Amino acid sequence: MAKFGVEFVPQDAYWKTTYYAMLAEKSGYDYVWITDHFNNRNVYTSLATILNYTDRVKIGPGVTNPYVLHPMGTAQTMASLAEIAPGRVVCGIGSGDKTTLEMANIPHEKPLATIREAVQIIRDITGGKRVNLDGSIYKISGVKLNFKIPQPVPVFVGAQGPKMLSLAAEIGDGVLINASNPKDFETAFASIDEGLAKAGKKRSDIEVVAATAFSIDKDLEKARQAAVPVVAFIVAGSPEPLLQRHGISVEAANKIKDAIVKGDWGNVFGQVKPEMMEAFSIVGTPDVCIEKIDRLLKMGVTLFITGSPIGPKIHKSIELFSKEVLPHFRNQ
Length: 332
Ligand code: F42
Known about the structure:
This protein is an alpha/beta fold. The protein has 15 helices and 11 strands. Strands 1, 2, 3, 4, 7, 8, 9, 10 and 11 form a 9-stranded parallel β-sheet that branches. Strands 5-6 form a two-stranded antiparallel sheet.
């Protein structure tokens, strides 16, 4: 049966994100993911608070990165969280937000090898092993936690590019794909299958996660308006081949980027075209959302995430999703 997750950006005070997470658990979601960006609240503080106020839902960073926090630190934090809530903690890790890393003058070198070794370190340390690694990135000797958790924390790898997608499938317990349109999943599955073949794994050995830009409301226009700023940022930050895949010109993307930089939001709203919304979000009434989610699940997505903005009012959209979308898939 398909699983469902929700992603929160901890841009609000901790109690608000915790309240949303409690609501998501009550509404029947299986996973809560908290994004990790320096300018927002700390992801692990948010996760610890949420764990104390929830009982069932699985939670994790979606996603942290090995450049700002060394994977030993990530492993120690994940193990500590797993002690609070055994079996409910998962670790999402990706190569990180280039802009922030540049601002901190942290070299973003060799992301593939860095992620490969980081995943091994997190898995081994949370699995209670003494870690000795003479890697091309990390050299670690004799590191071990002096407390134990029942099982290693599952590691999901956030990936967009073909090589990272392949690596994520090869080494991860799950692949977290930031995309909303079937075309992107078609391309992603080719890389995922390559990675699985390398590791001698099957599709059923991993979770394939669609981390979508999602907005639901009974009023289609309200759902759309809520998603426009998110789609604008995605278009502005997308590489050319991705824009090309969706028939969006670089000039159109640059116009949006310029308007964002100038803070000219009236212009941003004017420049975000229907084809951009279609390419980079799932937006609509419950019926429309069901149809689009169904399509991704039929392609092989096993965990669907309703990501930012979720809807014009987060709590109302979670309730609407729970009442009118989730039952459709739970009763199948
Ligand atoms: N990033 C955040 O900072 N915070 C978040 O909360 C977050 C959430 C999130 C959720 C899902 C998801 O899929 C991604 C998410 N991200 C988040 C973004 C993530 O951190 C990455 O920025 C994003 O996934 C883009 O990275 P990528 O997977 O496309 O990989 C990059 C590095 C890439 O260019 N990959 C290429 C590819 O084909 O996959 C390979 C690049 C390559 O070959 N590099 C060489 C190497 O050896 O690694 C050489 C590079 C060198 O050093 O010169």
